[in-house]
Design goal:
Elements: H1 5-23, E1 33-34, E2 43-51, H2 56-66, E3 71-74, H3 76-81, H4 83-91, E4 95-98, H5 111-129, E5 135-136, H6 147-154, E6 157-159, E7 163-164, H7 172-182, E8 188-192, H8 204-219, E9 223-224, H9 227-231
Parallel strand pairs: 1-6, 2-3, 2-8, 2-9, 3-4, 5-6, 7-8
Helix pairs in contact: 2-8, 5-6, 7-8
Length: about 240
């Protein structure tokens, strides 16, 4: 029996390392990736995934009310469905990032498939919003072999998060409590203004959470910045 224990431990260790490489927020095994900004500045980045959706304007209204900036990682197919909302995000001064074209789970996919997903989203966003993203967030936070090559060819940097709100399953007050406990200088906060490819998704809890979270963090002295400004403050 003793002969098999080291092998079992090695297999378990390899599996754990692979899981971290695929989903670990600080991992950069499959390509360059960031998950937070500098800790010496009292600034944070609020980000939204899966949009645009029919409810994105509600988020934009709250952000405009408090004069804060955010980053929206948009799905190419949703941009094609709702181009005017994608344009509105850009026109309001927010940053648009790439969140793939159809939001597939990209592990066990070929390098060509991964690159095609990112390229199609790039083209959809550039065509309809007039900007070409330099940041992307992988669907479900999952990275895989081939990401690094796609990033180099499309000039994209991966962005994970410091804290995620689980706003697709938690109630608004729980989202706010979770994020308030975990926010810190340089944090990248992840919420969702859509629900993958669903039309007219119910994001009421997200809207309500943002309505409370933004003024709360402003009162704590945090400055809201886009991912670009947070990570590259001199640009």
């Amino acid at each position: 029996m003793a002969l098999y224990l080291p092998m079992g431990a090695a297999v378990a260790g390899a599996a754990g390392s692979m899981a971290w490489a695929v989903r670990g927020r600080s991992a950069a095994v499959f390509g360059p990736s960031v998950w937070r900004g500098p800790r010496h500045r009292h600034s944070i980045a609020l980000t939204f995934d899966d949009g645009p959706s029919e409810s994105t304007p509600e988020i934009l209204d709250i952000l405009a009310q408090h004069r804060v900036s955010a980053t929206f990682f948009q799905i190419g197919a949703n941009v094609e469905r709702l181009p005017e909302i994608s344009q509105a995000v850009c026109q309001a001064g927010h940053l648009i990032g790439n969140h793939s074209h159809t939001h597939p789970l990209l592990c066990f996919r070929s390098a060509a498939f991964i690159e095609d997903q990112l390229r199609q989203a790039q083209e959809a966003i550039e065509t309809h919003a007039g900007v070409r993203p330099t940041w992307f967030r992988p669907p479900f936070g999952v990275r895989w072999f081939g990401f690094g090559q796609a990033q180099r060819r499309l000039h994209l940097m991966a962005v994970m998060w410091t804290v995620i709100g689980y706003d697709w399953k938690l109630k608004a007050d729980a989202i706010v409590r979770r994020m308030r406990k975990r926010v810190s200088n340089g944090a990248i906060l992840c919420l969702h203004d859509g629900r993958e490819l669903r039309a007219k998704p119910d994001i009421g809890v997200t809207v309500e959470a943002v309505r409370h979270l933004v003024p709360m963090l402003l009162d704590q002295g945090y400055k809201f910045e886009t991912v670009s400004r947070l990570l590259c403050p001199t640009t």
